[in-house]
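Field log, afternoon session.

UNIT: design team B
ACTIVITY: writing a sequence onto a fixed backbone
BACKBONE:
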């Protein structure tokens, strides 16, 4: 009888199995919290400068398309003379979710963010419960214009300030009235809580 025939069978190392189970659970939690989930748009709407993939209604998607075109015109009028401004470019891409729940389900672990821009997409939801339901998208679309059209490399404070300047402006007479602040936009809607006296 050989030594191999007399060797006892190997026993399962339960300590290693337990750690493998823990690792599998941990990886599952990390994937659940951080990995983007699949999303299929219900419709696509094209405008002169944008391509919008959306699960919002047709009317809501078209409304966002109209407003981002107003933004594009106002932005072009303000920055179109810059030497880096691209007057010819591929259509800018937007992903419009039907509501906040879907937006946060597809894009987990966003913290406080209600929208974001990551090349080449602006991602935001249609905020039907608010007076201004598209201001999140306008803010992110300015970041997109800065990067993909004007090709600007701005300091963080100026990048955010520019996005706020455009996205908090009112829409009047079918144009974006720059500098006329819409009180129904973030963060202006907190002004009545911050300004407790007439003298700011």
């Amino acid at each position: 009888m050989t030594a191999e025939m007399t060797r006892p069978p190997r026993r399962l190392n339960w300590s290693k199995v337990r750690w493998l189970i823990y690792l599998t659970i941990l990886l599952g939690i990390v994937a659940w919290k951080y990995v983007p989930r699949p999303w299929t748009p219900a419709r696509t709407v094209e405008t002169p400068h944008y391509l919008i993939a959306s699960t919002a209604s047709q009317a809501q998607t078209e409304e966002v398309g109209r407003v981002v075109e107003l933004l594009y015109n106002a932005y072009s009028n303000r920055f179109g003379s810059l030497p880096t401004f691209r007057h010819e470019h591929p259509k800018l891409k937007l992903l419009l979710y039907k509501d906040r729940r879907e937006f946060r389900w597809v894009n987990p672990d966003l913290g406080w963010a209600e929208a974001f821009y990551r090349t080449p997409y602006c991602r935001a939801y249609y905020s039907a419960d608010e007076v201004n339901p598209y201001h999140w998208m306008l803010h992110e679309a300015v970041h997109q214009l800065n990067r993909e059209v004007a090709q600007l490399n701005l300091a963080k404070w100026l990048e955010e300030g520019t996005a706020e300047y455009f996205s908090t402006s009112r829409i009047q007479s079918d144009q974006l009235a720059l500098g006329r602040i819409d009180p129904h936009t973030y963060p202006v809607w907190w002004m009545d809580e911050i300004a407790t006296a007439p003298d700011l």
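LOG NOTE: The CA atoms of residues 71 and 125 lie 17 Å apart.
NEXT ACTIVITY: expression trials, pending approval
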